[in-house]
Design goal:
The protein has 20 helices and 22 strands. It is globular.
Length: about 600
Amino acid sequence: MEKKINDFSFRVATVNGTGSQSANNILFKSLFRMGVGVCGKNLFPSNIQGLPTWFQIRVSEKGYQCLREHDDIAVLMNPETAKDDVAWMQPGKSLFYNSNLITIAPDQLKPGQNIYGIPIEELSKTINPELRHLLKNLFYVAALSHLYGIDKDVIGSVIADTFKSKQKAIDANLVAFNIGLDYAKANFEKKDGFMVEKREGANKGKIVIEGNSAAALGSIYGGCTFLAWYPITPSSSLAESVDSFAGKLRADGTGKSKFASIQAEDELSSIGMVIGASWAGARAMTSTSGPGISLMGEFIGLAYYAEVPAVIWDVQRVGPSTGLPTRTQQCDIQKAALASHGDTKHVLLFPSSPKECFEMAGTAFDLAERLQTPVFVMTDLDLGMNIWMDDEFQHQDKPFDRGKVLSAENLTRIEAFGRYQDVDNDGICYRTLPGTDSPKGSFFTRGSGHDEFARYTESPVVYTKNVDRLLRKWHTAKKYVPAPIITGDPKAKVGIIACGTSNPAVTETMDRMNNKGVKYLRLRAYPFTKEVEEFIGSCDQVFIVEQNRDGQLQQLLEIDIRGCQPKLKGVRYYGGFPLSADFIEREINEKAGK
């Protein structure tokens, strides 16, 4: 049997609400502590308990943060999905299963498949009856540890850290693990070549964290002082994390927090509160998903037209309507770019990792205040709610960019203040904040027609001049938004463009192609900068990789970059699971005629 060291993936099929998440996280963190590159994805249902759930872990020397389409090892704990789970596995792979509940007939197996039956229910009779339904997941953790070299002492340390000072829980988990380990040693013989080898110190400087937690931490460090939100999967944990971090990092020494957080009655109210707080000078944000963006539309238009900063985190999920609330997509790109009625164009940021969620949080606040407009940070369920391995965060201790804010002293130097005067011809006007100690700084904020001095008007000439200036400001944003990152063969005539969580799969695809004959542009922002136009111009064909049905990113490129349409070819996955390099490579080869 061919040896494969630190290069395989496994899938655990369980039932939602049975405690498997804790066991799977123990596996994930143990591999991480061994210095192994690891990626974990939780594929869970939208109901609270009872439906099938899968957790996939990929082990790779390069630390790829995307899954393979087919796994090398399967752990089957759910009788309802066992038949399909077995059918999904390829020849020569290994299957572990709960032999008390699942039967695998010989005709179900493919050539070379190895099966290991674990009598889960029988073994569980020997452990704590109150925690039996949770602890029995440690049996498959033990079996994998034994056959694949996942260090049992490391697993023990992770269990201890997971339950911290709860010694009874630690002891109960260790008892269950050791029962499973003894059974595996007595009954299982290794039949495949997959193994884990410890890489001492290889993960130094790395962390494991969810994207939502990283976004929340970045928002606090980015100067956020106000949060208004309404719960919606998959963004709720972002807001909850902001509350948690603010309580620790914004304490004033007396037990009080210098931070305001409101759970509003709905999404429309939450964005309204954010606009009010931003207008008053706070750095304010909300977090939501696609349905929330739909409800916020009217207020988003107000912020755009009245030119009030706001930061909106859109943790995308599958639509339309309720869609698949616990599945991932990049399906809000056009909704966010053109949100609200009338002619609007918004700034979008596309983080592709927890580290970029942390960094782009501060960038979003700087851009919102510099440009005096809503800024959307476009993440998704995959990034937001899954655990990622990433580099440690580095906070850049620099002043916040508050943009063109006039103080009372500034106002003494000018004859008259016009809130919507384009003094610098960049589309960005000067603003004042409530409470500025000068009568010159006052103006009426309105979402209806207004002239340069914020006076009401319905003049077609004035209106046209105003919305043209807003478009000019959007073009000015190209100087401030993060530039794309270009890798691969500079002379290549074949290009790939992607953003967000498509990046890990494209990165692996580029490695498979050895970066020869192809180059890759990773978008980090909209509006598109000059680098994007130049990249497309240098290619004969460009594959636009995205996770939605209609090619929303491709459509924006075709609208904004003239003449590019004949070169663009869509590579689209929208089934709701995280994107894989297997899919991208296959699609590109087919579309390129290989």
